[in-house]
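ok so heres the complex, two chains, lmk if somethin looks off
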Amino acid sequence: GESVGLHLPTLSVQEGDNSIINCAYSNSASDYFIWYKQESGKGPQFIIDIRSNMDKRQGQRVTVLLNKTVKHLSLQIAATQPGDSAVYFCAESPNSGGYNKLIFGAGTRLAVHP
Amino acid sequence: SQTIHQWPATLVQPVGSPLSLECTVEGTSNPNLYWYRQAAGRGLQLLFYSVGIGQISSEVPQNLSASRPQDRQFILSSKKLLLSDSGFYLCAWSVRLVEKLFFGSGTQLSVL
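and the predicted structre for the whole thing:
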């Protein structure tokens, strides 16, 4: 069935470096993708999203890249800060209609070291 | 601005006891409402969603039920909790026909 997965379960980076978190999806019919950040004991927070008619979208210090050919999504965080330490989830929407279904990946933990 | 409230933040319940978790949304009308469960160190599993008052759809068979008595109120219930019901429960809302979800702060449920 459809699935959204992540290549790396844990990513450790030095403060100030750029981080890249990867995500693979399997449903070629998905037309919307989204990244969330979840700090321990809290609900997920929206970071950035992208539609399938785009291949790149930038926010503040974050960039999402979408490669539909290989069904790959990535989140780039520039100048990573200690406050970026969290679990990051990607999710896809398979355009099921009727309601807004998001299928979430297992998550990647980002650890930022000083 | 829109806000979502979810309570309680933590809950410890004995096996076989009932459960009621409540979620309310402010600042919007006719939202889609969702209940997700997250096992420790895992992703989010959709349990229920609702597109309107009294309209509940279940994604997975389970020991839980949901109700939407008012437009911006979503309740997760169980008559008898199981050990396997332990987890982090998240309520979320979205604008109708828009995919982006906004999550509450979650309830950590421990069934002992």
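quick notes: Chain B is about 0% helix and 55% strand. thats all i got rn
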